[in-house]
Amino acid sequence: MPWGFGVVFSNISRAQFDEAELGNVIAGSSVICRDEMTESVDTEAFQKRLWDMFPATFSCQLSLPQIERIRWHLFPQLRIVPPEQVQLFASPQPDKPIAIPDLIKVMDLQQEQLARSMGDGHRVIHGVAGSGKTMILGYRCVEIAKRQGKPVLVLCYNKTLAGRLEHIIHAHGVQDRVSVRHFHGWCSEQLKAYGIKPPLAQPNAQQYLEALVSKVVAAVKSQQIPRAQYAAVMIDEGHDFAPEWLQIVTQMVDPETNSLLLLYDDAQTIYSTGGRRKFSFASVGIQAKGRTTILRLNYRNTLEILSTAKAFAQELLTGEEADEDNVPVITPESAGRRGAVPELIQASNIWEESRIIAQQVREAINNGASANDFAVLCRNKALATHIASRLRAAELPVVLAEEINKRHLFDGEPAVKVMTMHSSKGLEFESVFIPGICEIGQRLQADSEEMRQEAKLLYVAMTRALGSLTMLHHSETVLTERIGQAVDQMRTMLAA
């Protein structure tokens, strides 16, 4: 493979290089100076300077996989190591040799350029599920934390994702300068930190959370809670944030750095009820014009899984254009990775569904898989509790998200993760099981907004799977029929 080396002097002109006689230290042919890489420089002349840095050439051309393998070695921070998201940004331990995987995965050039070149100011990334948004957030967070005095705040909606993000930050040793919180947890901490009484008890949890946010809004307005607390604020899964939440958060950024990063995918909005209010970014204080990037490629899912999920949720994923100050719906595109066809299995009842899951997980573990590779995503807590009890009865290691502090879901020994679909937002697993599909939206009209939200939630659950997706049911419903049609449509498309 041909290789060469050179130096780019971004602050020295060629005349200054010659005048200082720097050619005695490094050959002039191995240098590109400031005035030799401006937009006015002839393209062919610039290319010749690059080729002059190669002392020898060979009649071969590198393939894309070979180029990615080289980038994997040169830039460890760009490596993608699924499904262990926690290690995306971890520094290699010096006493352990680096194992080189057969399949090299690194950020693509668009992701790398975005992560490296993102300056201060407000930035918005619209990205489909699995496009590497969280990976870019982690890279950006670590870079800012290393060079700023004030702390960095990372926010998301659900506790499970907050726990996973916290692991990513801890892996890079900047946890003392970065606070990772789910939004309502951060609100509670703000009230406590500034001696403000929490809201009175409310009839239900939703009303209490609304009262909590109202308290924080009022306290920020009256300056009981100070603004500009953080060098940077980063919001993952920003599509789950209400407009008034974003208004609070934007005020927490120090005007001197003015660094805010918002990650967004309107197709994954699953927490709102009764329809979502449309809003512009400018209306909530986010200066997005000229600083918006769209990521369309899905790297997480195989072509088979993504094609099935897209076919199932077609009407949800129809691309909707929007200007930079508004929220588009982006149609995902596959990076082309191939894998197993998703399965839709009909059982006689929920107990048999549990038995099938336990059997498949047991066989995979016996063949060398880790229990951490598996997640069972359920529509509600009652079903999650039932599935967890059946898997434990089968003597499988299980962690039920509802039984522990969700921030610690990924601590401890390898275990099958059982959680609700809502709690799975932002996460990924090698193999995903979705039981009880026939119980989703049973009493809803097929064309209702509520059924549309259920379909969106199921789409989110399906796209958590990296390599294997198994869906189970024990009776026919509108949704199971749609999933069966989606699998058939995927087979037909890939066979063409």
TrEMBL record:
<keyword id="KW-0378">Hydrolase</keyword>
<dbReference type="GO" id="GO:0003677">
    <property type="term" value="F:DNA binding"/>
</dbReference>
<dbReference type="GO" id="GO:0005829">
    <property type="term" value="C:cytosol"/>
</dbReference>
<dbReference type="GO" id="GO:0005524">
    <property type="term" value="F:ATP binding"/>
</dbReference>
<dbReference type="InterPro" id="IPR014017">
    <property type="entry name" value="DNA_helicase_UvrD-like_C"/>
</dbReference>
<dbReference type="GO" id="GO:0016787">
    <property type="term" value="F:hydrolase activity"/>
</dbReference>
<dbReference type="GO" id="GO:0000725">
    <property type="term" value="P:recombinational repair"/>
</dbReference>
<dbReference type="GO" id="GO:0043138">
    <property type="term" value="F:3'-5' DNA helicase activity"/>
</dbReference>
<dbReference type="Pfam" id="PF13245">
    <property type="entry name" value="AAA_19"/>
</dbReference>
<dbReference type="InterPro" id="IPR000212">
    <property type="entry name" value="DNA_helicase_UvrD/REP"/>
</dbReference>
<keyword id="KW-0347">Helicase</keyword>
<feature type="domain" description="UvrD-like helicase C-terminal">
    <location>
        <begin position="411"/>
        <end position="475"/>
    </location>
</feature>
<keyword id="KW-0547">Nucleotide-binding</keyword>
<dbReference type="Pfam" id="PF13361">
    <property type="entry name" value="UvrD_C"/>
</dbReference>
<protein>
    <recommendedName>
        <fullName>DNA 3'-5' helicase II</fullName>
    </recommendedName>
</protein>
<dbReference type="InterPro" id="IPR027417">
    <property type="entry name" value="P-loop_NTPase"/>
</dbReference>
<feature type="domain" description="UvrD-like helicase C-terminal">
    <location>
        <begin position="295"/>
        <end position="404"/>
    </location>
</feature>
<keyword id="KW-0067">ATP-binding</keyword>
